Amino acid sequence: MRRSAVSVIAPLADKARAFGSKAGSKRIVLTGACGQVGAELLPHLRSIFGVENVIGTDVREPPPLLLASGPFHQLDVTNALQLERLITEEKVGAIVHLAALLSATGEKNPMQALQVNNVGVTNVLEAARVHGLSVFSPSTIAVFGPSTPKHTPDETVMRPTTIYGVTKVHLELLGEYYHTKFGVDFRSLRYPGVVSSAAMPGGGTTDYAVEIYHEALAKGRYTCFLKEDAMLPMMYMPDLLKATTELMLADGSKLTQRTYNVGSLSFTPAELAESIAKFVPGFEIDYAPDFRQAIAETWPQRLDDTIARRDWGWEPEYSLDAMSADMLATLRKAGAAVRAEAVEALTEDVRRAAEKREQMMKFLASQADETVKV
Ligand SMILES: NC(=O)c1ccc[n+]([C@@H]2O[C@H](COP(=O)([O-])OP(=O)(O)OC[C@H]3O[C@@H](n4cnc5c(N)ncnc54)[C@H](O)[C@@H]3O)[C@@H](O)[C@H]2O)c1
Q: Is 59 close to ligand 1, i.e. is its CB under 6 Å away?
């Protein structure tokens, strides 16, 4: 199901030359690189634009593997001066702005969500205006609210009830404003809930759809924090990577709007559990809905992405069962790699212990020799 890396990346690599600043630089700064999306979008962009051309950044200290994989700077997006310095010093041409607080985390700390999300995107767009940079920054299905039709077109009622949704409506409108008023090439997608295997999700209402796979393999059962019939739009990471890079590299003259719905899958927790049970026999689910159920009830069930399909040829690839098969295979392989590493470490420990014992025996023998000599 997953298209070969070569067939996806080769045509994109040609277009990649055109993406970047008006001055011609194609170096990209990616914010929020340590998060669920960043963990996979960063290496994907590097495979298209070149490792040295995509600079990962996050307010958090990165895990050692990420640090070793290419250029990285610690950056707080609420600090305009830090961002300005990085753009100037690294001759940056574009920003992929992911850093944000998501729905569940945002409800626990609304003031911080306002600060990170609103000030962050304002700093990014202002830097883009001053330096002539392109910007891609995702929006979300959380921009919609209870009065939005459940089968949701691009242009519709946007009255979200979470602070996260409010900040993302701000992001969409500010991006459009900077495009119309200052000519900033701002592009955005309303990501559905994201399912992925490389990093755990960071505090969203759709996190259950990732946790469930981990628990299916670890325990054969899962307690879901949403109700069994909570249908939401979702997307598997390979489709998200495809949608993101296709929009980033799309011919600007074909785009009729700055922010697009992108549809892929829509399923309920019960349907997801049924799909997982096909690959994990005996898998069981029960339900203990919490505050996230109330958030889910305000969101769309299905996104109408007719305009993305028409303007830049959007087409998702993964069905629900194809996603389950791929997620479980990837997690099993990752688990096997972790076990292999543990065995290797154990073997190394045994070897070192044997070495130490041998040295000790030699030392004791030499002491014994000394004693005899005396
Ligand atoms: N994951 C989803 O299901 C989903 C769905 C819709 C939209 N999105 C959007 O995709 C983007 C990435 O989401 P994600 O799932 O990777 O989120 P995440 O919570 O996993 O990661 C966000 C990252 O931003 C970083 N960050 C927080 N505050 C920062 C600051 N002040 N400066 C710099 N970095 C900071 C965090 O350390 C974290 O690594 C977000 O803009 C989000 O709104 C995600």
A: yes
Instruction: Give the phi and the psi of residue 266 in degrees, each rounded to 5.
Output: -135, 125
Q: What is the DSSP letter of 161?
A: S
Taking Cα atoms as reference points, which of 21, 45, 22 lies closest to residue 32? 45
- CA dihedral over 152, 156, 157, 162, signed as positive or negative: positive
Residues in the chain predicted with pLDDT less than 70, given as ranges, are: 1-23, 336-354, 356-374
Task: Say which CATH class 5-335 falls into.
Answer: alpha beta
What is the Å distance from ligand 1's center to 76 Cα?
Answer: 13
261 C-beta closer than 6 A to ligand 1: no
Q: By C-alpha distance, which of 38, 44, 75, 71 is closest to 59? A: 75
202 Cβ below 6 A of ligand 1: yes
Strands 232-236 and 265-267: antiparallel
- List, for residues 294-344, the tens digit of each pLDDT value: 999 999 999 999 999 999 999 999 999 999 999 999 999 988 666 555 555
Point out the residues that are catalytic. 164
- Quick one: which H or E segment has residue 130? helix 120-131
Atom of ligand 1 nearest to the CA of 38: 16
The residue whose C-alpha atom lies closest to atom 23 belonging to ligand 1 is 32
Phi, psi of 124 (to 5 degrees): -65, -45
**What are the domain boundaries of the chain?**
5-335
Place of tokens 């979300």: 140
